[in-house]
Every structure is written in structure tokens, then in C-alpha cells.
Amino acid sequence: MATTPTSTPPPKTNRIGLTVLDYRGGKTTLCAGCGHNAISERIIDAMYEMGVPPERVIKPSGIGCSSKSPAYFMSRSHSFNAVHGRMPSVATGAVLANRRLIALGVSGDGDTASIGIGQFVHLMRRNLPIIYIIEDNGVYGLTKGQFSATADLGSKLKTGVINDLPPIDTCALAISLGATFVGRSFSGDKKQLHSMLKAAIAHHGTVMLDVVSPCVTFNDHEGSTKSYKYMKDHEEPLQDITFVPAFEEINVEYDPGATLEVTMHDGSHLRLRKLEEDYDPTDKINAIKRLGEAHDKNEVLTGVFYVNTQAPNFIEMLNITDEPLATLPDSVVRPGREVLEKAMEELR
Amino acid sequence: MATTDVAPHQATGGVQPKRVVNNMSLQVATVNGSGSQSSNTVLLRSIFQMGVPVSGKNLFPSNIAGLPTWYTIRANKDGYIARKKEIDFLVAMNPETAQEDVMSLDPGAAVLYDEPLNLSKLRNDLIFYSVPYDKLVAPVCPEAKLRKLVRNMIYVGVVARLLEIDMAEVEKAIRRQFAKKVKAANLNMAAVQAGFDYAAASLTKQDPYLIQRMDKTRGKIIIDGNSAAALGCMFAGVTVVTWYPITPSSSLVETLIDYLKEHRIGPDGKATFAVVQAEDELAAIGMVVGAGWAGARSMTATAGPGISLMSEFAGLAYYAEVPGVIWDIQRVGPSTGLPTRTSQGDILSTAFLSHGDTKHILLIPNSVAECFSMAQDAFNLAEQFQTLVFVMADLDLGMNNWMSDPFEYPTEPIKRGKVLSKEDLERMGGFARYKDVDGDGVGYRTLPGTDHPAAAYFTRGTGHNEKSQYSERPDDFEHNMERINRKFETARSFVPRPELMSNGKTKVGIIAYGTSHWAILESRDQLRKEYNIEADYLRIRAYPFTREVHEFIEQHDRVYVVEQNRDAQMQSLLKLDVRPELVMRLRSIAHIHGLPLDARSVTDELISMEGK
Ligand SMILES: Cc1ncc(C[n+]2csc(CCOP(=O)(O)OP(=O)(O)O)c2C)c(N)n1
Ligand code: SF4
Ligand SMILES: [Mg+2]
């Protein structure tokens, strides 16, 4: 086959004419097999398929192995590897400065649920347009494997230390505080994560995705509840998720009795084929209740737990003008001489 | 002096002592939450409207109601507006502190007190006027629950009568104070009149103090430093404001919000700004950094505790080279106690805020006019040097009312610094974010969202090479550190130059900064008149120090560095900056007690250090 001369087919491109290579990043320096690498791959695919211009994306992150990962995808997007636990504030500032940016924030379970919990909860309250991804391995990878606050009760470190504190469920927290698209996935669940990321891109508000992402070096052993094996045995998907972008007019048949369809802000459709009879992802209270039950049953519930496309986002609440604040001309941001003169007159 | 208690209907009609015109300080001692602020403002404005230079300082507790508060008004024909150490005229309204307030007066001072307090028995070397407030307020204010507030207007009337402040000016000040609330204005004016009439009928003038018309405030404005800063920021084109409430900085942002709502809503009805009350100062500075990185003119305002919390981000911004403006309205130290008192105690910690090697640009305003103008400087320098700029005001400047010439409309266009556009990139093909192309240490940056495949770069703290690629190589790190330092050296020629008052003939120099300025002006006159000492004076307006600061120290044998902190913080910074041989010339006059600096303290200490 290699010897047969053929004309090379043009590389596949997306709707804005870019190839998947245009969404790649630098070579990863994370451990081989680290869940974070798989998440980076899914982000690349989702952004490519959605035809998102990489120049409009920003990738703020905190500190940790997870927070390093923005270096390994989408080199054509600006990145800001900030300080530990404070990505939410940096992202908020950037989005206020330029409301046209698409913010994809990457954090870890340590970065979010311990040092960063304050900024995390306040970000959720504001419903800032952002995709917030927690790459959740239950440990601090970068500082060599200490427990994080998402580690399950009774889970065991390599050293034999048992965790005797209850975990913080970042999804339950996000739902109760006001995030408008909340779900959990698994770095090893390619199809589910892919669909959820695409839906996340279509959502205009705070998307909070907790993605279980095993740390092969420090937390993938027997006794860990964030290992590949544990996830295989305990993942409990709520729905079978498909995403139909607005620009793809494919009319797949679906049974409205068994499938819930959510229309996203940009006209896309999120189709959730129910695996659990009566789960309603627009019911906030029930979502939190169901997450609590999952803990009690030792199941790792995944899927879209909550979605609300009606709530105003932070940019709308602040009534910010359509042009990016960052580049408004002098004539707009500096009131005229008469304004100062009047102010002076009033102070005389 | 004989006892000069003047009780109603007992006027002694004693001999009038000598007249002291337009040179006095009046202190009102009250309880906070009692609504005395309006009365004091009315007094201040009335004197101002009579053309007499005046300043007002509020010494208040960190409390909402019930703790002692003092408001000092100084009227001075020569234009001295620093705090005066001695009180000439006390209005004693607070039973809790009345005794101590009276005991601390110099002989000859006058005291106006509430009759039941019976203060006149305390001393026989003061002039006492007693006023039956409750009796006077009842008829003018039938509504009992308003009496507590209106009561304070009575002393305005009494003082006006005793000092001969023109009642027409008082009325004007009242109408202004209560602007559209005509009923409140009338009620308050009636109380003033009741006080005035009472004094006319029942008190005989015994003290020497008088206010007479001058022409020294024509065209001037009265404003507090925080409002001036707010105006300055609006005209500097601020677009993202974040904050976490803390005295004495809150009013800066609150005033700014009002101004922005009034003047920065576009024709589409939408805001050309964003203001966020953050969850804490860590988030406030994080948002400033994020916004600055994305190209906004971003700022926050805080005080010392907030500055401490911002430390980690300050280092990140320094190394990632992100612009932003931080107002530090300095106050006294940590936690409870004196957080509502003024200080210059954050100079050293802010200059080096964060870990690793960091140095920040500081701008230090001395006046409301500089709060306005330095707002423009701060945003321009932040973007020009891609770094944080701290504006170091203080409580005295920020929260007190100051006279000023009207502010001048900024004539220079807004300076956005080295930002590459899509078109630039098309021409250049690409860029290296941290390369020193122009030799000034400042690289070129792009803003997120710039529509060019080569626009993006990866922002992080220390470890990067010129192309902003991850690097832990010693040479990359060293080059980067040296370049950032070069930026700081370049900044020396761009920050506001010092103000210099020198005749070039004396070997004695004074260096001061910020609000200490006003005490220094007066102290230099005291030194000249009372001790025949000429002292040259240099007022530092920024860090890093400009050439003039070094020259000034070269030119003087003894340089007194005056500041409002304990540890001689600016002197320490100077010691690090000047030639080692010159360090011995620096002498510290550092005062910290929570009160604004007064001239007499400076003069006395300088004289004793001069060995006179
Ligand atoms: C203020 C501060 N404290 C501590 C650290 C050290 N530190 C670096 S990464 C990290 C934990 C990261 O854990 P996580 O967010 O779960 O990321 P992971 O490496 O597991 O992906 C810590 C504690 C730091 N960088 N900054
Ligand atoms: S230490 Fe763990 S989290 Fe960090 S890169 Fe390796 S596998 Fe991933
Ligand atoms: Mg982790």
C-alpha cells in the first residue's frame, strides 16, 4: 500500500477550516498513563469538533500536575498558570476584561477543594461564563501523593495511611451554590466526557465538571477509590449522553419518553437517554439528594447532574457593554472635560 | 487668669483679651453615631466660604456607635492645614471623655459644654461657656427621636456667634449639606439659630478667637482624598474594579461606583466598566491580575491587612509582568484597636511585597490633587511597565476633607504600553513575549483574544525563557531576573519626580512624603522663625527613587527623614539605595500615634537632634 502512489487526501478540517493539529499543545511532561493526559485529549477533540477558534479561548489554571496540563493542549490559546487555588479569580478578571473570551479553567482536587475552596464557591455563585474542570485524583500529585479533600472515607494511600475524613462533593457544592451546568465524568470514559465537554462549550454560564482522573503514580493501587480499577467497578452513569451541535442538522430519532433533550444557549441539543427512570437534571434539590445517596452506596455517579439554561450569567448581571472592556477607546472610557468641570463646580 | 465661667444670665462682661484672627483649632468631642458629622462639615464649609484656609480631621473609632470621636477644624490665615497639636477651642459633647478632654487643654483655651456636665469646676485657667442643649433643642425639634441628631446643630450656632462666623454662610452650608431635603435643612437651620440666639443673649465672649473674611479660598474645592482618587481613576479610564470592604479604603470604591454609574454608561444603556465586590482581598487582586492580563485597566483599593493577603499574587504579577493598580489607604497595624487611625506603615512591606526577589513601583500622593493626578500616572505606569503599581495614600488623606485647587483635566492620551495587535503580528510573523527588544527591559505582549495564530503565549511565574516557554535553565532564569530589574531601573526616570524646596545654602535637609508634607511646610517656618534654621526640603513622590533624591542627600550633611511609622521605613529604603558613604547622613524622625503628624513634633525633635 505504501508503494502505491496516491494523491494524499486533504487533511480533515472543522467548520472553521482548522485541522485537529491546530488544537494541539506542547508535548506532555506528565506521567505516562496519567488521567490528566486523557482529559487534554478530550478537550482537543471537543474544541476541534465544535469549531471553536483557538484564539478566543483562554486557559487559566492553578497549581498542580492538573494545572500544568494547559501547556499540553491548544497552544494557539493564551494560558495563565496562576497561583495555587486562585484560578477562579484570575479567570473572572479576564472574562470581565473581555467577555468574548471562552474560558476553560483547569484545576485539581487539591487546587479546588482545599486551598481554593473559597474562590471556588464564590465562582459558582456568580455563574460566570466558564468551563471549570477539576481533574480529580484524590491526591496532591505534584507534591507527591498526600490526600486531598475529595478522597473518600476509608480510601488508602500507598503508604498505608487511611483517610478518615469525609470527602467534599464538589458537584453537590456547585449545584447548591448556583453553577448552571454540573456533571461528573471519568477520564477513561471517552464517549461520555467528549459529549459533556461539547455541551459545556455550548453553555453560557458556569460549567463545573468534576472528572475523576487517576494518578498512576500515587493513587492507582488497591484500596484507592480513584484508581482505574475502582472506577471500572463503581462508575454508575446516570444517562447515555449525546450532543448535537447547532451547526449539524442530523435528525436522529429518539424516544422522548426515554430521553430528555436540553436546548443549549447556542441552539445545540444535549440528549440524555435516561438510565435511571425518573432522574430530572433540572431539579436542583433532587440532584443533591441523588449525589448523597450515591455516596452512601459507594457508587461513583457520573453524567449531567444539573443543567439550567435560564439563569442570567455574571456578565449579564453586571450589564457589561458588548465590546470587550479591555479595548474600549479613550473616548469611551474617559468622560469629557465638561464632566470634570461640573464635578469641580459641585465641590466649590 | 481668673475663672471665666460664663453661665446664663451671669455674664461678667470681663475685659476682652487680645484678638486672634483666623488662627485657631477647634475640636468637637462627641460619640460616634451621634450625627455630628453634618454639624462639623457645616462649620468647616462656613469658614471655607469666608475665604479662610481650613482643614478638618476626623479622629474616629473602629465602631458604629457609642465610642468617642473627635473632629478637629483648623482655620489658619497662613494656609497651614496640618493637624495642630494644641486645641484652642473645645466643644465638649461627650460625657465619657469630657473630663480628660478638658484636662488636656493648654491654659487659656475655651470650652463649650453641655450644662449638666458642669465642667467649669475642673479648672480655673480656661474659658468656659455652658449651653443647655436639651432645653434649646426641644422647642425647635418637636419630634423627640430626631433631637439626638439636631442637637449637634446647636453648637454650630453658638460657635458661629462666638467666632463671628457669618450666619449667611452657615445657612448656605446647611442648604448644601441637606441638598434636596428642604425639611431637614429647615429643621437644622432652626437649631443653629437657636444656638446663635442663645449665645447672643446669654454668653459673653471671653476667648480671643475670631473668624474674619479673607480671600484665600476663592475658586478652591473641598474634597476627601478617596473621592479625588475615585474621580482620578474614572478619568484614567479604569474598566475593571474589584474590592473587599476595609476602612479607610471602602469609600474610594463606593464613590467610584457612584461616579461610574453616572458617567460611564454607554448610549446602549450598558456599563463600560465592571465592579465586583470580591470574597476577599486574595480574590480582589486575582481579578485585577486576570483583568490586567486580558488588557483591562484594572484596580482595587485596600489597606494594610488586604495588602498582606495580596502578597502571593503581587509576586506572580511581578514575574508574569501583568499590569494593575492597587490603592493602599494606609492605617495602623493588624486586627482591632487602631484600624481607623492614620499611618505610613506599609511602605517597606509593600515595596517588596511577596516572595523571591520582588520590588514594586509605589506612588505617594500628599494631597487630593495628587490623588487625582497619580491615578492617571498609576494606570499609565502599570501598563507601560507591565507591572503592579501601588498608590500609597493614608487615612488622613483618604477620609478627611481637604481644600484644593480644582483638578486639571488630563491632557495626555491614555498610555496602553507595548501591546501587539493582529496587524502587528501579521507584519512581524511572531513575537517573543519576554525579549528585551528596546533595551528598556519591557517586552511586548499580546492580549488574549487577538485574532492571530501566533498571538498566544503561556503565562506563568518564574520559569520561562524569552519566548515564554517553560524553562528551568539557570541562564534563562538569570537573564529574565536581570531584565525585570532593568525595567525597574528604567522606571526611575518615568515615575513622578520629587517636589523640591531648596535655597541651596543650607546643609540641613528634610525628606518626607505623603501627608507629612503639611506638617513639614509649617515646621520649616517654625525652624526659620524660632531657631533661625533654614532646612531644604525634598518630598518623595515615588519609589524607585529618582536621581533628584540621591542628589539631595549628596548636597546635605544632615538629612532628616520624617515619616509616620515606628521603624523608619522610608529611611530603610533610602539606605538600600544611596551610596554607602551617604547612609550616615540619614537621620530618622519617625512618629506613630495614630494622629496625623503635627509641625511642632517635627520641629522639636529636629532641634534636639541638631543639638540646639
Ligand atoms: C501557596 C502554595 N502552597 C502549596 C503549594 C504546593 N503545591 C503545589 S501543587 C499542590 C497540590 C496540587 O494538588 P492537585 O490540585 O490535586 O493537583 P494534582 O497534582 O493532583 O493534579 C500543592 C500543595 C503551592 N504551590 N502553593
Ligand atoms: S504524579 Fe500523578 S497527577 Fe502528577 S502527572 Fe504523575 S500521574 Fe499525573
Ligand atoms: Mg489532585
Account of the 3D structure:
The complex is a heterodimer of chains A (348) and B (612). By secondary structure, chain A is of the alpha/beta class. Chain A has one domain: Thiamin diphosphate (ThDP)-binding fold, Pyr/PP domains (Rossmann fold, 3-Layer(aba) Sandwich). Chain A contains twelve helices and 13 strands. Chain A has an eight-stranded mixed beta sheet, sandwiched between helices. In chain A, a hairpin with a 5-residue loop joins strand 5 and strand 6. Chain A is globular. The mean pLDDT of chain A is 95. Mean pLDDT of chain B is 94; it is low at 1-14. Chain B has a seven-stranded mixed beta sheet with strand order 11-10-12-13-15-14-23, with helices on both faces. Chain B has four domains: 8-210, Pyruvate-ferredoxin oxidoreductase, PFOR, domain III (Pyruvate-ferredoxin Oxidoreductase, domain 3); 223-404, 3-Layer(aba) Sandwich (Rossmann fold), CATH 3.40.50.970; 419-476, no CATH class; 499-609, Rossmann fold (3-Layer(aba) Sandwich), CATH 3.40.50. Chain B contains 20 helices and 25 strands. In chain B, strand 17 (419-420), helix 15 (422-428) and strand 18 (445-446) form a beta-alpha-beta unit. Chain B is an alpha/beta fold. Helix content of chain B is 38%, strand content 18%. At the A-B interface, strand 2, helix 3, helix 5, helix 11 and helix 12 of A face strand 9, helix 7, strand 11, helix 9 and helix 11 of B. The complex binds thiamine diphosphate, iron/sulfur cluster (SF4) and magnesium ion.
Mind sketching the topology for me?
The complex is a heterodimer of chains A (348) and B (612).
Chain A: H1 35-50, E1 57-61, H2 65-68, E2 78-81, H3 87-97, E3 102-108, H4 109-113, H5 117-126, E4 130-136, E5 139-140, E6 146-147, H6 170-177, E7 181-186, H7 190-202, E8 206-212, H8 228-234, E9 235-237, E10 239-244, E11 259-263, E12 269-274, H9 284-296, E13 300-307, H10 314-317, H11 330-333, H12 337-347
Parallel strand pairs in A: 1-2, 1-3, 3-4, 4-8, 7-8, 9-13
Antiparallel strand pairs in A: 5-6, 7-13, 10-12, 11-12
Helix pairs in contact in A: 1-7, 3-5, 5-6, 6-9
Chain B: E1 20-21, E2 23-31, H1 36-49, E3 54-59, E4 68-76, E5 89-92, H2 95-103, E6 110-114, E7 127-131, H3 133-140, H4 147-163, H5 167-177, H6 182-202, E8 209-210, E9 221-224, H7 225-235, E10 240-243, H8 250-263, E11 274-277, H9 281-293, E12 298-302, H10 304-309, H11 311-320, E13 324-330, H12 347-351, E14 361-363, H13 368-385, E15 388-394, H14 395-399, E16 401-404, E17 419-420, H15 422-428, E18 445-446, E19 458-459, H16 474-491, E20 499-501, E21 508-513, H17 516-531, E22 536-540, E23 542-543, H18 547-555, E24 558-563, H19 569-577, E25 586-590, H20 599-609
Helix pairs in contact in B: 1-4, 1-5, 3-4, 3-6, 4-6, 5-6, 7-8, 7-13, 17-20
The complex binds thiamine diphosphate (TPP), iron/sulfur cluster (SF4) and magnesium ion.
Residues 64, 108-110, 137, 139-141, 148 of chain A line the site of magnesium ion (MG).
